[in-house]
Amino acid sequence: MKRNRWSSDDDDSEEEVPRRSRKDLKDVHQPLEVEASSSAASASALPPSPQRTVVRKGRPSCRGVDNYARIGKIDEGTYGVVSKARDKVTGDIVALKQIKMAADICKEGFPVTALRETNILLALQHPNIIRMREMVVGSTPDKVYMVMDYSDNDLKRVFEKQAATKHPFLSSEIKTLLQQLLKAIDHMHGKWYIHRDLKSSNLLYDQGVLKVCDFGMARKYGSPIRSYTHLVVTLWYRTT
Fold first, then answer.
1. Is residue 142 one of the residues assigned to a domain?
2. Taking all residues of the chain, what is their mean pLDDT, rounded to a whole number?
């Protein structure tokens, strides 16, 4: 061993440490690789962690029409048949309107007119507008019903009875009915809806309360107002 001036006498007693080759260094790290491989093997032997299951809540399904007992047929229009029915649970008397479907419902789908009327009735909540309670379904896809509040008469029938008995409305009663009608129209127009088929048979009357019904031809409008077809209302109620 070569000595220098900083070396001491004790350095002679120490043995020179030989340099380690790359192979020796590799052998030194070998236990670490074995340990890592054993850890990986033990990890692979563990059971897989359970996967996270996402449960999505679906929309509530409609009730069946069998929850109502039909009493009799009221009327039949262009877009459906209306019957008088009784709720088997609450005993309430309701109007059950069966929506007319196309012959091939799989191709045609749900009628646009019925869908439009349903959305309008849900948007218009007013004491002088007919209220839709719910939608119910039958045993087949082509049997869909709208459940609405029931009324014994409409103004057309009331007028006919009054003409037969010679007992028309008093002036105060006419003012009250007109006020209710204007309130309903004001509410519709405030929500940007137009009825387009106002007539006496579409105005329900029960114990002095008037309610607008049959929104099959109603539309939502905006600004600027676009043009609509003129042949919408009943012939005898059209204006020039």
1. yes
2. 77
